[in-house]
Amino acid sequence: MANPTTTAFDEMRTGSGDVRPLYEACDQWLRGVTQAQLSQKSKEAELLFRRVGITFNVYGEDAGAERLIPFDVIPRILSAGEWQRLSDGAIQRVRALNLFLHDLYHKQEIIKAGIVPASILANSQYRPEMQGVDVPGGIYAHIAGIDIVRTAEDTFYVLEDNLRTPSGVSYMLEDRKMMMRLFPELFRRYSVAPVEHYPQVLLNNLRAVAPDGVRNPTVVLLTPGAYNSAYFEHAFLAQQMGIELVEGQDLFVRDNYVYMRTTEGPKQVDVIYRRIDDDFLDPLAFRPDSMLGVPGLVSVYRSGNVTLANAIGTGVADDKSTYIYVPEMIRFYLGEEPILSNVPTYKLGEKDDFAYVLDHLPELVVKEVQGSGGYGMLVGPTASKQQILDFREQILANPSNYIAQPTLALSTCPTLVEQGIAPRHVDLRPFVLSGKTVTLVPGALCRVALREGSLVVNSSQGGGTKDTWVLQC
């Protein structure tokens, strides 16, 4: 495969260097500002983000070490038509995944049909405790982040599905506020769809999935606490929705209901937007050493007296080994052809795929099936011989723990770097909200690989973010 850094689709310029129509107004604006001015605005953004506290913790570094996610001041622009296709495809995908989760925890028709193998029940993210449990509206993934990459002008692929506790929406919202503050003159050149109503849409969806009979539900956001890498987002979203941010110690179970401790006494909780992984939710049901969760919560949940968003057991659907079957899920449950394609994927637990991948490691991207944040992966074309040899040993020790994909030529967008404005690789994570309806706010988290030639956009690996502009016409 050709070097992805030289064959990537440039979203701003054609192969001959001409500016694409979508970026003409942005290009004119850029011609009217100097790099020094842009750099100054970038420094202002960093200062403002630091004052607000938009930082994330990096696991494995010194305790309490925090970083700002770098913010790029040049927006990524998508046409209304491009967004419509991405939106339709992401909604279709989440609808199918919710139907799959309901089926998996009930009749398992897709397994009986031979489309998904029964071995999926051995996945560590499959939760037998959820078997036969009916969740409100049949919705398991109330908030889903679908990672999408572009390889050509009209070619988009889904890279992965995030259904457990997807993060990053706070950066979508804060990046937009920052751009409007720093560059109001650029907004006057475009008709950009708003995103600031996301917290209200999210709250409405959470209220819509309250247990039956609850007319004025109390919604809370459950966080692991201030040392979690996404704590800023937890606090931000709770504040924006006007709901309480709670930790496990703030909640308790009594008479098979969940209550929140308040200065006015116990208050019943009906919906919990939880940002804690399954294993830590309830020490009586999962890890007994967990100090983050609420003893007895799973029993209340199984009884239907509280709603958890996202549902327990959603992780089995965003495992990278399950990802392979999503196009067939769409056909099976919806009777439709997938709008967005998967990236071709090799499953190393299968003999032929395993042999091919071992022979082509320098050409492929290899990922742990439950990995995230850019950890536990090998980018073959940019890896050293020693890194490839070391990763090969990891694969040999546990082949079924990995999948592999071609090294995609991720599209590039203009980005402010030390040398000036240069193309850098990007991806996109729109957030799909499921309640009475399935919707997307017209915007997304755009992550950018700031290092030249890098294809890894994750913030934990040095990536930054951009504001995503979806045009209204």
From TrEMBL:
Gene3D superfamilies: 3.30.1490.270, 3.40.50.11290. Residues 75-449 form the Circularly permuted ATP-grasp type domain. InterPro entries: ATP-dep_Glu-Cys_Ligase-2, CP_ATPgrasp_2, UCP005522. Coiled coil: none annotated. PANTHER family: BLR5612 PROTEIN (PTHR34595), SLL1039 PROTEIN (PTHR34595:SF7). This is Circularly permuted ATP-grasp type 2 domain-containing protein. It comes from Novimethylophilus kurashikiensis.
